[in-house]
Amino acid sequence: MEKLIIEGGIPLKGEVKISGAKNAALPIMAASLLTDEPCILRNIPKLRDTATMAKLLRSLGKTVEIENKRIKVSSNGKINHVAEYKLVSTMRGSFCVLGPLLAKLNKAKVSLPGGCVIGIRPVDLHLKGIKALGAKLEIENGYVHAKARRLKGNHIYLGGGFGSSVLATANVLMAATLAKGETIIESAACEPEIEDLTNMLIAMGAKIKGTGSPRLIIMGVRKLRGVNYKIISDRIEAGTYILMAAATKSNITLVDADISHLMALVDKLEEAGIKVTSENDLVKVKCRRVLKPVSITTYPYPGFPTDLQAQFMALMSLVNGVSVITDKVYPDRFIHIAELNRMGAQIRREGFNTIVQGVKTLHGAPVMASDLRASAALVVAGLAAKGKTEIHRIYHLDRGYESLDEKLSALGAKVYREKE
Length: 420
Ligand code: EPU
Hints:
The protein is α/β, with parallel strands linked by helices. It has helices at residues 22-31, 48-59, 85-88, 98-105, 124-132, 166-177, 192-203, 235-247, 263-272, 309-316, 336-342, 372-384, 395-400, 404-410, and strands spanning 2-7, 13-17, 39-42, 63-67, 70-74, 82-83, 107-111, 136-140, 143-147, 155-157, 182-186, 207-209, 215-219, 227-230, 251-255, 275-279, 282-286, 296-298, 322-327, 346-350, 353-357, 366-368, 388-392, 414-419. The chain has 14 helices and 24 strands. The strands form six sheets. It has a four-stranded mixed β-sheet, with helices on one face. It has a four-stranded mixed β-sheet with strand order 2-15-17-16. A four-stranded mixed β-sheet has the order 4-5-3-14, covered by helices on one side. Helix 1 packs parallel to helix 7 and helix 8 (235-247) runs parallel beside helix 10. The radius of gyration is 21 Å and the shape is globular. It binds uridine-diphosphate-2(N-acetylglucosaminyl) butyric acid.
C-alpha cells in the first residue's frame, strides 16, 4: 500500500489537463455488450475503476485492448451472462452490465453490489425499471437472476426518494435500446454522463429522443452496431482542481474542461468571491481575494453535485464565518468530517445539516482516505494546510483521479507517494 505526502501551503500555478469522465466511461464501456461489433472508445481515463470494468468485460467474454486512453472492445460473439461478486463488489458501477447483458442475451446473473461508506445505496430503481421491461427477476444467494424472452417497451417512472438515479437510468436505457417497441423513462437522470451514454447509443444505431432531459423516449431496434466514440471530460475532476486552486488562493487554467457541466459550482464560487471564466476548452480560475462563506445543498444534476460536496467542505473549512452543507443525494456522505477536524477544521453535524465554522489555518496531519471524494477533500485540505499531510489508503484516489500526483506536481505542489 502507498500513502500520499503533501507539503502544504504552496500556491498552485500553470495548466492542468482534465481527463475523460470516469462516470461516463463505466456505463459506456458496459454498453459495448450491446453489440458483437468492435467498439473503439477514446478518452477513457486510466483509473482503477476503468481497469476493473475492463476486467469485468473480459470475464464476460469480451476482448479488451487498452492502448493509452483508447480501448477497443470486441468479441467472437460468445458472451457469458454472469457478472461475479468479486468484481461487482469492488465497484458499484459494475452493476450497469445488468441492462445490456439482459437485452443482448435475454438472461443475466449479476451480483448485487452491496452498500459502501457513502450510504446503503439500494438498487430497487434498477430492478423496478428492468422488471417493467418484462424481465422475470429473482434474487438468490446475493445475485440478481434476470430472464426475458425479448424485453418489451413500457412507460416507466424512475424517480426515487432521493430523486433520479444515474446508474438505474443507464441500466434501463441500455436495456430499452434492444427491447420491442417504445419505452419512455420519466424522471431519468440528466447528468452529462447519461447524456454522453445516450449519444454513444445513438451512434451505435439506437433510436432515442430527449437526450439530456428527464424524459427519454426509446424506440427499440433489433441490433446495434460498433462505434468509435470519444467520451466527455470529467466535470468532477475539473471541479476538484478548481476547489484545490480556491483553497490555496491560486490562479490556474484547466485544459479540456467543460464549464457548462459545472454551473452550480461556478455559481457558488462566484458567491464566495472566486472568478471562474472559460474560453473554448480552457477554464481559468482566479482566487486571490478573501472569500465569503457559502452554504450548499447537493441535488441531482443540474444541482450542486454530491461528488464535489466533500471538496467544497474542505474549502469552506478555511473561510472565515459559518457555512451549512447538506447532501440531499447521499444524506450520510460525511465520513470526511472527522478527518478534516483532525487537521484543525471545526465542522459538526446537526441532524441532516453540517455546520462549518471556518478557521484561519489547517495543519498537516496523518489522515485516512475512506472513499474517493472524501480522499479528494483531504487533498484539498492538505494542499492548503501548514506542514505535512500524510494520506493513507490512497487506492481510493486512484479509483477516480488520473495521475493525481503528477498533475499536482506539474502545478507546483509538493506531492509524492511513499510505501506504507
Ligand atoms: N437510489 C435508490 N435506489 C436505487 C438507486 C439509487 O434509492 O435503485 C438512491 C441512492 O441511494 C442515492 C440516490 O438514489 O441516494 C442517487 O443515487 P444514484 O443511483 O444516482 O447513484 P449511482 O448511480 O449509484 C452515480 C455515480 C456516483 C455519484 C452518484 C450521484 C457512477 C459510477 N457513480 O452513482 O459517483 O455520486 O451517481 O451523482 O456513475 C463517485 O464518482 O465518487 C461516485 C460515488
